[in-house]
Each structure stands twice: as C-alpha cells, then as structure tokens.
Write a structure and sequence with these properties.
Elements (H helix, E strand, L loop, with lengths): L1 E6 L6 H4 L1 H10 L3 E7 L5 H6 L3 E5 L9 H15 L3 E5 H12 L5 E4 L5 H5 L6 E4 L2 H9 L7 E3 L20 E5 L8 H13 L5 E5 L5 H11 L2 E6 L3 H10 L2 E4 L8 H9 L3 E4 L2 H6 L7 E3 L4 H13 L1 H18 L2 H18 L4
Parallel strand pairs: 1-2, 1-4, 2-3, 4-5, 5-6, 6-7, 8-9, 8-11, 9-10, 11-12, 12-13
Helix pairs in contact: 2-15, 4-5, 8-9, 8-13
GO molecular function: hexosyltransferase activity
Keywords: Transferase
Protein name: Glycosyltransferase involved in cell wall biosynthesis
Length: 352
C-alpha cells in the first residue's frame, strides 16, 4: 500500500511522537509511506532516517479556520505520492485530511483522547484506531460503527534495555512531561516532601516545560525537596535520563495512554504511577508497575519507598515490565496488527 500519515499538531508529546513508530511499522511491513508534518516537528529527522518521504509545512496551531490551505498541501502531496489510504493523527490532522481526501480514499484517524468532546471530533473518519479498551468503548458508545473501530496500543521501536544502576544516596526519582495541572507534578513534589519528612529523602529530576514550572519550583523549596528542573528532554536525551534515575514516577491526573510509561519500561526502570486510563490498560498493579490513587501524595510516597526498600521486588517488577513491553507494546507486536487494520480499511473503502 501507499500510505500518507498526517500529523499536524504542534509540540513533542506522545501524540506527536506516535507518527514515528507508525511510520517504522508500516515501512517494516513493506509499505510506501509519506508523512506530512509541521516543519517545527522534532521528529522530522527521525522520519527521514526511516526512509519515509516527508513533506513539511508551517501550519498554524489551530488549523480549522485554515482547512482549505492545509487541504491543498495534503491533496497535492498525496496525489503526487499516489496515496491509496490516509491515516491522520487526532483532530488537527483529521480535519484537513478529510477536506483534502475524503471520499477519494479511506481516511482513518488515530485517537489519543478519552474526553467525549474531543473524541466526537473524530467520528467523521472512515475508521478510528483506539489505543486502549476504555477508549474503544467510548468511541463505540458515541456511535462509530463497530467494524470501523480498531484497537492498537501505542508502541515503541528499539530494544528493551537492562537497568543495572543500584540506587544512590539519596536515590533518584525521575519524571517527564509538560508542566501543566493534569500532569500532577505538584502531587509528586508533595510525595517527595513526605519522604523527606520521614527521613527518606530522594533527589527528584523533572524533565519538561510549561506554565506551571515557576509554581512547581516554589513548591519544591517549600516541601524541602532537592528537585532539579532539566527543561524539555528530547528523545535523543531520554536514554541518559533513564540511566540516571532509580524509579520513574508518573503522577498524572489524566493520561489517555502514556508513551512515557512504555519508555520507562523499555529502559528497565520501575514505574510508580496513578490510576489513569492508560495505567489501567498497561499495568497489572503490583506485578509490572505500582499504581496508586490519583492525587494521593502519601500513597505515592509509600509506593516509592516500598520499591527502594526491596531490591528483589524491584528486580522482579522490572523483569515483568520488560515482558509486558515486549509482548504488547513493541513494534514486533504491533506491525502485523497495524498492517491488518489498514488492509481491512482499504477493503472497506470510504464511508458513503
């Protein structure tokens, strides 16, 4: 097949990142792939290294008022490429892709949300790919035909690594993400404050940027936490980041999936996280990750301490997480599923 991927959202989060493993899986399956992305995307070089044809553009952050401009770029690029099917990432990619290609070929969308309002914007697609079972159930409840709803968890390329570091003194807890309220970094800082007051201080490494950074730095001082704010961590820098930490903590209040979970599992670092849609889908609590209630700093502190105190449990958990990652969330597990989804969608054709 000749497949066009449309990823026009800005930033470097999990949604934007997902275009890279999708392109890798499709090229591995023997398909020709064209990726249309923003010129500012941090993933342009990675896509090029896969042998993918890349068209970049400088679309605005909110594309809907400019759909006809975006559609012109997509239409011309897809026609020149000889595309047979399109896969757009979220509403920012789907709206212009449907405007350009709707009715001419199947236009699918990869859904990355669990809010009804956001998901409803994708219902005009010829097919939707959900990344978790709860997300799939929501899409069906909103009225998408069952035969056009598919389940494919997010996945990563690259080998699973062994993490041989022994916890330092103090041990190091790390977290990555945008510094916005829904990521819950305030809860993690308070959890580290709890540990400090118990006489079990940790060093906290935070990678990311966002409007809450100043407030979080003030909270770290108030809680007596030795926190280092590293700024945005690129994909190229993540290996070194994970090698530097003993536990990865994700305190999110909302996480539809969470690429960062997979990256920690791939790096061999034990995970402590909150009970989100993504965590419920990925982890078997207590086996391949520690899952605590959202917003509960005491519970997060307890889970971090339990792992630091028990090297055997920590080793068993990372080994189990490695098996989960390779069995469910690696490109080897995903390539055949994605290939089947697109072949089925091509056979179904565009919706009437």
């Amino acid at each position: 097949m000749r497949i066009v991927l449309v990823m026009t959202g800005g930033g470097g989060g999990g949604l934007q990142q997902s275009v890279v493993p999708y392109a890798a899986a499709l090229t591995r399956a023997g398909h020709a792939v064209l990726a249309i992305v923003l010129g500012s995307s941090p993933f342009v070089a990675e896509l090029g290294s896969l042998g993918v044809s890349v068209v970049t553009t400088r679309w605005p952050r909110k594309p809907r008022p400019f759909t006809w401009i975006q559609a012109l770029v997509i239409r011309r690029a897809a026609q020149a490429f000889g595309a047979e099917i399109a896969l757009a990432f979220a509403s920012k990619g789907l709206a212009p892709a449907l405007h350009a290609l709707g009715g001419q070929m199947p236009v699918l969308s990869r859904c990355g949300a669990t809010r009804e309002r956001t998901v409803s914007r994708l219902l005009g697609a010829d097919g939707l790919i959900a990344t978790s079972d709860e997300m799939r159930a929501l899409i069906l409840r909103l009225g998408m035909p069952t035969e056009r709803v598919h389940l494919l968890p997010n996945f990563l390329t690259g080998a699973a690594r062994l993490h041989s570091r022994a916890p330092g003194d103090p041990p190091v807890v790390g977290s990555l993400g945008r510094m916005v309220p829904r990521k819950g970094f305030d809860v993690l800082l308070r959890a580290c404050g709890v540990l400090a007051r118990r006489g079990r201080p940790v060093r906290l490494l935070l990678g990311g940027s966002g409007r809450e950074r100043d407030a979080l730095e003030k909270l770290a001082k108030a809680e007596g936490v030795a926190a280092e704010f590293r700024g945005w961590i690129s994909n190229a820098e993540k290996t070194a980041f994970f090698d530097e930490i003993d536990i990865f903590a994700c305190p999110s209040r909302l996480e539809p999936f969470g690429f960062i979970y997979l990256e920690a599992m791939q790096a061999g670092v034990p995970v402590v996280t909150t009970d989100t849609v993504g965590a419920r889908f990925i982890f078997s609590p207590g086996t391949d990750g520690m899952v605590v209630p959202q917003g509960d700093a005491e519970a997060m502190a307890d889970a971090i301490a339990a792992l630091l105190d028990d090297p055997k449990a920590r080793a068993e958990m990372t080994a189990a997480a490695r098996g989960t990652f390779l069995g469910r969330f690696h490109i080897d597990a995903a390539t055949g599923i994605l290939d089947d989804i697109l072949r089925e969608a091509l056979a179904q054709g565009a919706r009437g």
